Amino acid sequence: MYVKRNISPGVLWRYSWRNLIFFTLWAGGVFALYHFLNWNFIDIPFQPLSVIGIAVAFYIGFKNSQSYDRFWEGRKIWGGIVNYSRTWANNVLSFVNDTDETKRELIYRHLAWSNALRIQLRQPSSFSISENKSVEKLFEKHGHKNPVCEDLGVFLNPTELEDLQARKNVATQLVKNQGQHLKKLLEAEKITEFDKQVFHNNLEELYNLQGKCERIKNTPFPRQYAYFSTLFTWLFILLLPFGLLDVFEEGISLIEGSVRSWYLFMMIPFSVLISWIFVTMEKVGSNSEDPFEGRINDVPMTALCRTIEIDLRDMLDEDNLPEKVEAQDHILY
Fold it and tell me: Helices marked H in the chain — which ranges?
């Protein structure tokens, strides 16, 4: 999640440089054919092009609205994970009549669960968005897509960690292990049947929150909206220089003096500017479709997992609590 108030020019350049070069070459090529080779027939009336532009803008607006809904739902789900994590720790400390080591094991296993879920959601899928190399390097250098079990060793005992290596869904297995641990505590009369029911209600809600995350992760944004939004945007961009030739050609008759010969040339920067605006609007929606990928606009799951860890370890009265996760390159992961 980008946390700086204004997006820095460096980030804009990472996302835009290839498109800006293409827009300039494309508009420049159209201008050269018209002006130097006298292909006067390639200009088209701007009025129908403006209708296309309005339709594309409405289509992009719908896509962006739905994409933001996916992000906001993901953020609300992780807000619920934070809240139920605190509830779990409070229940452990209040209900479990056993050693501090047992309480610590139950709470640390929950920390492992939240981090396992974070890493699972960050793994790329077949429909994950792919940017140019300069953008991908920005995310890869911060290493937030490690193998699922790699970061769990600090929370789990070696035996449990080894068992998880062969599991398909590590987060699901960890919640199951919590249930098995509660069963043993009940048999040892360390908790009551009522306590066990309260705990299992908490675990049920964690499964619900995990399932909601997996639903968003495993369900791509409807391709008929995503694909045609991109297609219509690029059709408009490719036609734009031909329509601007018509607009600037009409303006030449109103200009006198030395400026007149340069007036038509101005269609190139205006074409680049309009094209950049449209493609940027389209990319905003595309980059918000999948809120768990660890990209610039996504849910900051690493920071939320660290918040959970700080709160729960503080509830255990531990010292040397970890620091809050800080933004890297103005991106909070």
Answer: 9-35, 46-95, 100-122, 133-140, 158-164, 170-187, 193-218, 223-252, 260-263, 267-286, 301-315
